[in-house]
Amino acid sequence: MSQGSNFVDYVKICCRSGKGGAGSTHLHRDKHTAKGGPDGGDGGRGGHVTVKGNSQLWTLLHLKYRKHIIAGDGESGGSALRSGKTGRDEILEVPLGTIAKDAETGEVLFEITQDGETKILTPGGRGGLGNWHFKSSTQQTPRFAQPGESGQEHWNILELKLLADVGLVGFPNAGKSTLLSVVSAAKPEIADYAFTTIVPNLGIVAYRNNKSFVMADIPGIIEGASKGKGLGFRFLRHIERNSVLLFMIPADTNRSIKQEYQILLNELQEYNPELAHKPRVLAITKSDLLDDELQQEMKAELPAGLPTAFISSVAQQGLDALKDLLWTEINK
Predict the structure, then answer these.
(1) In 3-state terms, the chain is what percent helix, strand and coil (to 5)?
(2) Which of 3-12, 68-77, 154-163, 294-303 has the highest mean pLDDT?
(3) What one-character-per-residue DSSP string does 231-268 give?
(4) How far is CA 171 from the centre of its chain?
(5) Tens of pLDDT along 279-322?
């Protein structure tokens, strides 16, 4: 499979829950009892369609070809107050950061952020009550019971927003994938043409004293991405879930550092104004091309008040200083 086909962050599925079993109308009979009272049991609940968080997953690929999710029906109640069997639940395991939406209205139903967290996406129908619930002094042998409730059928959308401590933001070929490959065990595709990275990549970055944090390489942004240019805003939503944004600008950029930073920031604000409030760190990549004098000149042009590191992923320069800056911002 290609890199693009392995990463699926959006699926639309039809979920049908099970119908509840009918209650029983049984009257007690045995060799010692000719005309006993009602002892019909309740019907079983219909199966739910549930969503469960799994920290071992990072894509919705396993659900891509499951368009119809059908839970089991509940069974009818029996004699001697025996309840019917509950219908089989359908459990959809999803990566953390998955949002469930109603496909027709777009309403957000819930989000999964914890390992093992379970939410009901489509509830099963309730089982009907057996006739023993309806006995009374004036109705001692009720010959009726409740039918089970019907199941529900809905089209739903499952949408993944990657959870990471640090999200890499930059134009194509800013060195994001190279940095991720150097500081973590991730192996993103790296080449010298724009949009080499066409899906997000995650890597765990080792830090001092056996500590670590998660870094996400988001596909390159271009001017106008929030309006659909380039790869568009499809992957901008993954930036929403990152604690810290690391802006990466190459030292050999055609614009000034401040101009390029402002373009990137504007694209994020156009997409979601709340992203402007996230902690930000600036990394000047390919700094092995700079001598001390050029580096000092560039420092005078940097955006004010923004933590900045000069790094070279290839030469492995400044990476420890960058990790220190990121760790400080993550733990503020």
Answers:
(1) 20, 25, 50
(2) 68-77
(3) TTTTTGGGGGGEEEEEEEEETT-SS-HHHHHHHHHHHH
(4) 24
(5) 999 999 988 888 888 888 888 888 888 999 999 988 889 999 99
Q: Quick check: pTM over 0.85?
A: no
Top pLDDT among 72 and 221 is at 72
Identity at 12, one-letter amino acid code:
K
Give CA separation, 61 vs 1, 26, 71, 142, in Å: 12, 48, 21, 52
pLDDT at 206 over 50: yes
Task: Dig out the tokens for 3 from the structure.
Answer: 């890199």
DSSP 21-41: PPPP--B--BTTBSS--B-PP
At residue 2, the pLDDT reads 35
Task: Answer whether 140's CB lies under 8 Å from 118's CB.
Answer: no
DSSP string, 8-25: --EEEEEEEPPPPPPPP-
Strands (E), the chain: 10-16, 49-53, 68-70, 90-94, 98-102, 108-112, 118-122, 153-160, 164-169, 201-206, 212-217, 242-250, 280-285, 308-310
User: What pLDDT, on a 0 to 100 scale, did the predictor assign at position 294?
Assistant: 83
CB-based burial of residue 60 (10 Å sphere; 0-12 exposed, 13-18 middle, 19+ buried)? buried
Residue 274: is it exposed, middle or buried by C-beta count within 10 angstroms (0-12/13-18/19+)? exposed
Tokens 């499809």 map to which residue? 234
